[in-house]
Amino acid sequence: MILPTKKVIRYGVALFFIFTMNFFLPRAMPGDPVINLLGEDFVAGKETVEKLREELGLNRPVILQYTGYWRNILHLNLGYSYHFRTRVSTLLLSRLKWTFILVMPSLLLGTLLGAYAGALVGWGEKSWSSTLTFLLFLFIYCAPPFFLSLLFLYLFAFQMDIFPLKGFYTSGHFGDVLRHLFLPISVMTLSSASRNFMVMRGSVLQEKGKSYVWYARAKGRFGKNILFRHVFKNASLPIVTLFALDFGFIFAGALFIEIIFSLNGMGTLIYEAVLARDYPVLQGAFLIITLMVIGANFFADWLYSVIDPRVRQET
Amino acid sequence: MKRYVLNRRKYLWWFGGALFLFFIILAVFSSSIAPYHPRERFEPFVSPSQKHLWGTNDIGNDIFSEFVYGSRVSLLVGLFTGALSTSLGVVIGLIAGFHSGFFDEVLMGLTDVVLMIPRIPLIIVLSAFLRPNMWLLILVMSILWWTSTARVIRSRTMQIRAMSFVESARCLGFSNRHIVFSEVLPNIFMVVIPEFLLTVASAMISETSLSFLGLGDPSLKSWGTMIHFAFQRGGFLNGMWWWYIPPGLGITFFVMSIVFLSFSFEEGEFELKEEVKDVSFNN
Predict the structure, then answer these.
(1) Contact B54, B36 (CB under 8 A)
(2) In this structure, are residues B23 and B70 in contact, taking their beta carbons and an 8 Å threshold?
(3) Do B117 and A282 touch (CB under 8 A)?
(4) Does this complex have an ipTM over 0.85?
(5) Cβ–Cβ of A248/B118 closer than 8 Å?
(6) pTM of the predicted protein model
(7) Is residue A273 part of a domain?
(8) Looking at the complex, does the CB of residue B126 fall below 8 Å from at least one CB of chain A?
(9) In this complex, do A279 and B128 lie within 8 Å of one another by their Cβ atoms?
């Protein structure tokens, strides 16, 4: 895997920039930096605060604080949460896996479903069914994910009582976990699919007019055969870009969905941290999400070079 | 074929326009449409009735009035963020596209970096530190939201810069400033509008989402705030759907009307491109 050095430098700069911003945030915000670094749940006498100010190095020059900040990050030391009474890194890692269980299947299913439906609707002649599909996906595209979750929860869990109202599991059996995860994963899949649908539909509409499609038609292929053998691959390039761009969005969306369905992932953690003004957890979560987004962009660039030979040749 | 496209555009335009107008009227004439002031208190937890169209909430505010006034917040946040961030994006995109080379490299590098900042998580962290305030939210969103506009404007500017009428203007000795303002800017206008509209929509969704988390401006009642209280104070568990479904549908359809409008502009853009291509074919 060889990426252009320019790209790698940009990722490096982005990472550096965002992490540096994260360093200055608690120090630039109004209020006592000690509290900004430890969270509002931290209550102590004046002497202890002064002692901690010394320990946190807030009396030292900014440059030294800054190098210390990077050293801590490289040692995976993200501080201590006084609200949850554990180390932030342990807390984040334990919650992250649940978010992944929610996000990964939804992202995959959503991309496939959205790309497939979008390609069909973009390719076909206008009909009632395609207009209806378009309007349905548009509605999902425009609805905030948390409202969609509320709607689903109200309809399927509250009114029809088919699915449980909250949590990841009650008994812990595989089927039980699946039953609990069905609604949140459906909401996320649909919301990810709707974005992919919009992009794919536009992309296929654009590709439709190109001459290789005419050539394929002239060769004797027709209908969906052309779509899936020739057009689909070319039209799906923007989907790869979207995957990277969407990763942050999906994570933020997962946050809201977790809150609604009371799932114990990163989202509920961030929510609890916001309510308790637990700044170390918030900052740690922000760093983890940043890492994830940059990683996704990196992955998308690599995937792009695998799919599109023109990009490969440039490197 | 052409008539078909035109019809479709018209239909999108009318539908989106009518829906958009409806919400604008709701926002502008809130005080005459809403039967009560959103902070006036009645008996709490009343079901929908003649007196209270959509019932009342936990502290006895009339939900229909809250809904009507809530449209104002969405509209304000959307329009201001859209205007600010689009202007920023246009300026950056124009500079990058017009002066390729060093400026372009730096500005596009900056765009890539800003694009990678996880927006919603950053705003959540910021609002936890600061007291939530609508103008602050607008400012932060504008600083984060300009990237896609800048990219689109840049590529469009580069296209136009290479066209012959710009070259002739250059040959005639017009200054760069004149070329940017009178040759390039009018031609990117059609690209700016859909970008602006999509930014407005995205800002509105973000505002609602943040208010839903309880990070909205406490002095304002937005649709997100309504859903926040409905979810927090038992409106959801007691099955009072009239408390949170209307604001949810409100934001969805408001955003939908804007997306429809932007689509109708984009379809127009499509046509323009095709015409340009046809001309080059005939040559």
Answers:
(1) no
(2) no
(3) no
(4) no
(5) yes
(6) 0.84
(7) yes
(8) yes
(9) yes
